[in-house]
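Board notes (copied after class):
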Amino acid sequence: MSTRRWRRQVEMCSDGMREGKPHAFDEIACHRGSLSDEDRGTLLDAVHDVMVAVFGVPSADRYQILTEHAAANLRALDTGLGFKRTHRFVLIEVVSRPRPKEQKVEFYRRLAETLASDCGVAQTDLMITFVINSDEDWSFGNGEAQFLSGSLS
């Protein structure tokens, strides 16, 4: 499976690409029944593997939600770009601390290539958006703001 390829690339990733900033949350939406159980698992793994490779996110820092929606409840046009969306459309919202523009562009490219090859999601059926927040916006449990308390950096 080609997600193994990404795992190898993560191990070989140069320190120059790594920021070491943890990542906390991916919310993924797709049409109900558009992806098999295997494809959904591959999609979740691919998002995380590319996040680790491009942003240097620790591999144990993984929080993801995948929701499936009836066609009437998930609509995504092409924003005038001239391509047609299909029933295999996937929307990925990444909630994250700030990341460099170059890393985001690399993330978009790698993830689109991976999902096309591993899940059969056309690159025109993938939409990715980042929601940026800061250290005080996270609590990972125990009612504590771990980035502020120093438990996480």
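Comment from the instructor: The radius of gyration is 16 Å. Residues 1-19 have pLDDT under 50 and may be disordered.
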